[in-house]
Amino acid sequence: MQFGIFTVSDITTDPTTGRTPTEAERVKAVLAIAQKAEEVGLDVFALGEHHNPPFFSSSPTTTLAWIAARTEKLQLSTSTTLITTNDPVKIAEDYAMLQHLAEGRVDLMMGRGNTGPVYPWFGQDIRNGIELAVENYALLRRLWTEDVVDWQGRFRTPLQGFTSTPRPLDGVPPFVWHGSIRSPQIAEQAAYYGDGFFHNHIFWPKEHTQRMVEFYRRRYEHYGHGAADQAIVGLGGQVFMRKNSQDAVSEFRPYFDNAPVYGHGPSLEDFSRETPLTVGSPQQVIERTLGFRDYVGDYQRQLFLIDHAGLPLKTVLEQLDILGEEVVPVLRREFAALKPAHVPDAPTHASRVAAAGGTKDATVYTGGDDVTGRTAEAATR
Amino acid sequence: MSTRTLAVVSAGLGVPSSTRLLADRLTTATVDALRERGVTATVEVVELRQHARDLADNLTTGFANEALRRAVETVVGADGLIAVTPVFSASYSGLFKTFFDVLEKDALTGKPVLMGATAGTARHSLVLEHALRPLFAYLRATVAPTGVFAASEDWAGGDAGTPALTGRIHRAAGELAGLVAGRPPAAPADPFADPTTSFEDLLRGPGA
Q1: Candidates B60, B61, B192; nearest CB to A211
Q2: What radius of gyration do chain A's Cα atoms show?
Q3: Are the C-beta atoms of A293 and A335 separated by less than 8 Å?
Q4: Residue B141: CB partners within 8 Å, gap ≥ 6?
Q5: Which of B78-82, B148-152, B186-190 has the lowest mean pLDDT?
Q6: Chain A residue with Cα closest to B69
Q7: Is the pLDDT assigned to residue B160 strictly greater than 90?
Q8: Into how many domains does chain A fold?
Q9: Could you point out which of A87, A373, B190, B204 has its C-alpha 20 to 30 Å from the C-alpha of B181?
């Protein structure tokens, strides 16, 4: 099982000091957090994508490429990549490039984005969110798996004889997760392709997570990718830890009370009861996290949100120490002991290359399809 | 004898509240009218005052907590709804509106609804027509033609009300009972049932 962290890249005032970091400080902090994640033995770092303040991460592949160059083992992912407002051609190009730079340590999580005003900035309409996700992702897959693509759809200018470069590393595209809090169509999409399904598992009660994962697993089996319990499931989670539970609660409370998404609403105690948020001792986090398995089954990836709402870098790095030293080793051992042998691990580049029958050079030297022999020139004639 | 469920939403704030009083009179009359049609009704009352904080939390978090979830399920799952609000600043109260704001947009589609409102003066009586009816029309509920408005003077004859109010209550209750008895029991759609359209259809897009 993979353990990691995901960040939304928010620039938020620290409510305890009233100080707001600069973009430059926050960017550097996130880079430090990613490097620390590898240092403490976590497996995954996932970065969000946003195109409006107070977030900085409009260009995730740039950031992830820097992190790739400074790390050895860390799996790089997104949380999420906007499949609705990004051009799928640009996603295909950017993430194949990142895959080469990171030597395969890349996967993606597709999300629709729920910020209405963002859509028109990119020529789209939030009311078409599902349709955009479906069409754009279908095109993205073709761009990664077919050397020369002719394509026409509703939302993007047509393509004729188009080759997306670089081709995916070793001829194997990055593994894709689909994230959605409550849209069964997205769980259906993940199941249809045999991709992973990720539930944010932060903002809403666990019943929503449970229903979405159950549906995804059932449909995964329906589409013939394997048994329901072999589907690839990832969960988010939000924790804040101190040695003594009460210290964690009193330190985190001002950040919770003023958090951009759910602040000024329910109490920390109410929200902890209603959602998977866990604020307390490392042991409490271990117990709560092991309990996730009770309602989603054996799953492959657990990501924690630990760096939002204005928490200072120093505190976040301390949280990473606690995760790496006290929490994740226990979770790794306990989850592994519970997992039946037929339940797969999260796919990696190495496992996907092996499944594809080994590495192959996917380079398109002259613009031609290696299956049909068709060239770009022929396609446009 | 067949059975149906009635949900009653009251946005009254006082105890006792004339809003709840009107809701109770409408409920009793509707249960009686259903019985005359051979239908046994069970009644569940949602007092929005008890969910004031839950509703505010729902606005900030985007989800209903457990207590509010039960109230929402009561209303969404019912065969008929009696919804009564006090008039605040010439319209339904914010508490009343917030409850309907946090429902899923299709949650009340086709649901038989009886509207009621209370105020200190009869000059607010058209609130049913200019505020509540458009709200339920937007939600695609099936609203009984008669809504019942009760001002202070309607209660002047004691809790039994004036004959005019009683007449309106019985007419409205009869209309709601007719709507509820005339349709099969509610069966809410399950968004997590296996899809009726294939993913291939979704891929081909609309009109394909």
Answers
A1: B192
A2: 21
A3: yes
A4: B81, B108, B109, B110, B111, B112, B113
A5: B186-190
A6: A205
A7: no
A8: 1
A9: B190
Range of the domain at A93: 2-380
- Is residue A125 within 8 A of residue A113, CB to CB? The reply is no
H or E stretch covering B137: helix B133-138
- Could you tell me if A170 lies within 8 Å of chain B, comparing CB atoms? no
Interchain CB contact of A125 with B (< 8 Å): no
The chain B residues in contact with chain A (CB within 8 A) are 56-57, 59-63, 65-66, 191-192, 194-195, 199, 202-203, 205-206
What radius of gyration do chain B's Cα atoms show? Answer: 18
Q: Looking at residue A219, what is its pLDDT? A: 97
CATH superfamily for domain B2-204: Flavodoxin domain (3.40.50.360)
Average pLDDT over residues A282-297: 98
Instruction: Indicate which CATH number applies to the domain containing A60.
Output: 3.20.20.30
Residue A303 has pLDDT above 80, yes or no: yes
Q: Spell out the domain ranges in chain B.
A: 2-204
- Of the pLDDT bands very low, low, confident and very high (cuts 50, 70, 90), residue A369 is low
pLDDT tens-digit readout, A203-226? 899 999 999 999 999 999 999 999
Following DSSP, what letter does each residue of B148-189 receive, concatenated?
Answer: EEEEGGGGTT-TT--HHHHHHHHHHHHHHHHHHHTSPPP---
Contact flag A266-B194 (C-beta cutoff 8 Å): no
CA distance A194 to chain B (A): 13
Cβ atoms within 10 Å of A133's Cβ, excluding its own: 24
Whether the CA torsion A131, A133, A137, A140 is positive or negative: it is positive
Encode pLDDT of A29-39 as tens digits.
Answer: 999 999 999 99
Burial (CB count <10 Å: 0-12, 13-18, 19+), residue B134: exposed
